[in-house]
Amino acid sequence: MLQRTHGLAGVVAAELVLQHFQVPVWSWETAGAILLGCFAGPLADIDKPGSVMAKLFFPLSALLKLLGIHHRTMTHSIVFTALIAGALSPLPPLYGWTFVWAYASHPLIDLLNEQGVALLWPIRRKFRLLPKFLAIDTGSRAEDAFHIALVVIGVWLLVRYALAG
């Protein structure tokens, strides 16, 4: 998936966390959580040379490359996500959970890709949710459709929550 799709998935995850914590739609907390979700969603691609996140965090990305960490392995794993959750536990729950769920949205939607994800890294086996013929290729029309579906879900969640509260 492209960064824009991962960023949008992170925003949808942030919206779900905001609704769980019953944060008012029109608040600074909401704005901060949405921005955090947009940032955390694509962050797992720090392991992909040339990605926006790899360029933004070049020293860390270069270190991952030196260590032989390949794309959709360590940074996309359940273990790494759990480590992030532990490291962020001192943060206020709204922001900690927003970051964790937005970050976790990344490997979750990459499971729709043909290449799959090494969710159980360091075990190398990659998992995917769809058979190869239904998988969503990065930058494809299927990804465009998935992106549009995320936009619709995000707007629906926002409107539904705004009208409820």
Structural features, described:
With 165 residues, the chain is an all-alpha fold. The protein is 59% helix and 0% strand. The protein has helices at residues 3-20, 28-40, 52-56, 58-66, 78-87, 93-110, 141-164. Helix 1 packs parallel to helix 7 and helix 2 runs parallel beside helix 6. The protein is globular and about 45 Å long.
Question: Helices and strands: which structural class?
Answer: mainly alpha
Mean pLDDT: 95
Order of helices and strands: HHHHHHH
Largest sheet: none
Strand content: under 5%
What is the global morphology? Answer: globular
Number of strands: 0
- Radius of gyration, whole Å: 16 Å
Binned, the helix content reads: 55-70%
Low-confidence stretches: none
C-alpha end-to-end distance: 33 Å
Number of helices: 7
Task: Describe how the helices and strands are arranged.
Layout: H1 3-20, H2 28-40, H3 52-56, H4 58-66, H5 78-87, H6 93-110, H7 141-164
Helix pairs in contact: 1-2, 1-6, 1-7, 2-6, 5-6
Give a quick rundown of the structure.
This protein has seven helices and no strands.
Overview features:
7 helices
